[in-house]
Amino acid sequence: KTIIKKIDANKIDMRFILEAGSILKKGGLVAFPTETVYGLGANALDEEAAKKTYAAKGRPSDNPLIIHIADVQALEEIAVNIPAEVEDLAEHFWPGPLTLILEKSPVVPYGTTGGLDTVAVRMPSNLVARELILASGGYVSAPSANISGRPSPTTAEHVRQDLEGKIPMILDGGSVEIGLESTILDMTVSPPMILRPGAITLDMLEEVIGDVSVDQTILGNESDIPPKAPGMKYRHYAPKAKLVIVEGNIREETLAIRQLAYEAAREGRKIGIIASGETVDFYTHGLVKNIGSRENEKTIAKNLYAILREFDEEEVDEIYSESFSRRGMGRAIMNRLEKAAGHLRISAAAVVKRQRFH
Ligand code: TXA
Ligand code: MG
């Protein structure tokens, strides 16, 4: 039986935090809110707790976990040979949605790092998360609190859908702020390399530490080169329906998707459409969802996973999505959308042209 405790971040009930902290100390699992997505917490220094995490998520155990800390001193316990830039990064972006890859210290078990000699560390800003980390001894490993292969949870209800009955407690702190997982920056290479794009963008990082590179497997086409973050190789965030990204300018995209939805409706297929505030009224067939205005990428980021889950519940056969700008946080949005689509995309112009010849 899973206990769900509602917590108001502005008025945190410490009884719930202490109860959750004691579950973690005893080697159990607790799901909790962070500013990015909900995490499935465990004691990061306990190898057995890591095993439980992998079992609950159905996740391969070669996929390492991120250790969440609540103060910078904790970093020195779990990492060694910490490069000088880390201090600047921590000052600018912690607490916040930035995960750093560093050499691990011997106290971190290989069960937590998936056998690697490096460790991923992040200091979340969410107040419930911070209190929980402090109440549990200071080191909480937390993957996203979803079943492996489903979209990451952005509400406690999403966590319940995936993990009810499998974990003793969920702390419900309401909707998350950001909605996409943290930026992962590998500090063991020079220049540092982004392994997963997130709310802390390339430009923001370069402003603080200068040159930063980007793992080439993050964007663009399917490639044979394995990504550097083990977790990025899995077809994550996958909705049950086939998801296709339609690419072109906005006009072409809306015309193409409208046409595809019309054809599908005539053939009796149930279609979902990921539309933007600017285009949502243009569609005539299919189940249309407004992911937010193209002017506001933060809203798009926040709605993406919830919309994918809604389409799952409504059991659509296919989803067509408009494509979005890759600028700033758009890089993270398109990265997640492309992974959800398994890199399926079609040219809007080609669809529109085909129609003209009919
Ligand atoms: O925003 C987030 O980071 C959320 C919240 C809960 O904090 N957590 C999260 O964890 O997204 P997870 O387990 O879903 O993703 C962790 C990613 C995986 O892709 C994993 O392969 C990568 O981090 N990772 C962890 N340790 C690593 C390491 N030592 N080297 C390279 N990649 C690593
Ligand atoms: Mg995940």
Task: Please give the count of helices.
Answer: 12
How far is it from the N-terminal to the C-terminal residue, by CA? Answer: 57 Å
Radius of gyration: 21 Å
- What ligand molecules are bound, each kind once? threonylcarbamoyladenylate, magnesium ion
Structural class: alpha/beta
Mean pLDDT over all positions: 94
Report on the biggest sheet: 12 strands, mixed
Number of strands: 17
Name the poorly predicted regions.
Answer: none
Please report which band the strand proportion falls in: under 5%, 5-15%, 15-25%, 25-35%, 35-45% or over 45%.
Answer: 15-25%
Fraction of helical residues: 25-40%
Shape designation: globular
Order of helices and strands: EHEEHEHEHEHEHEHEEEHEEHEEHEHEH
GO molecular function, one term: ATP binding
Subcellular location: Cytoplasm
Enzyme class: transferase
Protein name: L-threonylcarbamoyladenylate synthase
Structure description:
Belongs to the SUA5 family. The chain is an alpha/beta fold and 358 residues long. Helices cover 34% and strands 19% of the residues. The longest helix has 17 residues, at 250-266. The model has no long low-confidence stretch (mean pLDDT 94). Threonylcarbamoyladenylate (TXA) is lined by residues 34, 36-37, 39, 63-66, 97, 99, 101, 113, 116, 118-120, 122, 142-144, 181-182, 184, 195, 229-232.
